[in-house]
Structures are given as structure tokens and as C-alpha cells.
Amino acid sequence: MLVLDDASAFHLGLAAGVASIVSIGPNNLMMIREGLVRGRVLLVASLVLVSECALILGSYAMASSLVTFDAQFRLALSWGGLLAIGWFAVQALRAALMPGGGILAALNETGRSCMLRVLGVVWLNPLAYLELLLIPAAIGQSLGSDEARLHFVAGLVLADIVGCYGYAFGGRAVSSLLRNGLSVRVFDLASGLVLSAVALTLAASMVHAG
Q1: 108-128 pLDDT tens trace
Q2: What does the alpha-carbon distance between residue 18 and residue 207 come to, in Å, rounded to a whole number?
Q3: pTM score > 0.90 for this model?
């Protein structure tokens, strides 16, 4: 069990949050793309943030109650994750074929459709459960006190706030320089290839583990 003071636990949370920020996954790619197409940047970033904070708070509850998941659950989550990431990859590759990089579609999207799309991506993203629920819960269980767990979670939340709005508004800032659909299509193509690589890596690790 780790015995950390409050400041150290907070910094540990920040470090874990930064690790999640720099990881390449559907949530981060979606927020960057929303900025590139100059869509509902604030709405998308806020929805992702609220959803991810809910997972982080869930990790705190798990750590405090010492909840653990059995091997069957982890296996089911892994297979579900493989299918979800594969689906995200296909959608990104399809978007890369859209004329104008999907900018017109983003402009015509209703607020309700945008919310459903974002919530679907976040809550069907297995990487979010791993990075923001299971791993933080495991770290939290190793901390020596509930006070330290609270400071750890606070660090995670602060990093998540910076990450969500940084990605979304960073993408929008870049879009002002590029200003063409080709750049969005290139981004979608790169996203599809990256997510395909993630899916293949996950599949290989599951086959090897089995």
C-alpha cells in the first residue's frame, strides 16, 4: 500500500491524467476532429468531460469499496473493446471518403444528433473504461487513505479538463490555418489507420494471452 501525502497523491493523479491525454483513442480523436470541422466544439468537449468525470468518480467509489472485477468480465470487456475500436476505425475511414471532409455534414448536424453521437463514442469506448475507471481504481486501492484517493481523483479531473478543452479548441485553432476539407479527410484517414492498428494490437494480445 502506498503512503502518500495529499500533494503527492494529487500529482500522481495529474500524471495519470496526462497519460490519458496523450493516448490515442476515439475520444481524443473525436474532439480534435470536431475542432477541425469547426463544429459544436464547446458542447462536444463538455459532454466528453462530464462523461469521463463520471468514470473517474466511479473509480473512486470502486477504490473506496475495494470492488474488483473477475477474469470473465475483463475478457468480455476486451472483446467488446476490440469490436468497438474496429467499428470506430471503419467510421473514420468512411468519413475520409466523404466530399469536403464532412464539414458540411458537421454544420448541418442537429444538437440532439451531436449529443447522441458524442455520448455513443464515449460510453462505447473501452479505452475510456480502462484509463479512467479500472486503472485509477487499482491505483486508488493502493493508496493509504480515503483523503489521498480524493486528491488523486482531483488531479485526474484537472488533467481531464485541460485535455478535453485543449484538444477541442486546439483542433479549432488549427482549422483556421488549414481551412479546407482535404485536411479533415487526411485526419480521418490517419485516425482510421491508427484505430485499426490499435484493434489489431489488441486482437494479437488477446490471442497470445488465450
Answers
A1: 788 889 999 999 999 988 788
A2: 30
A3: no
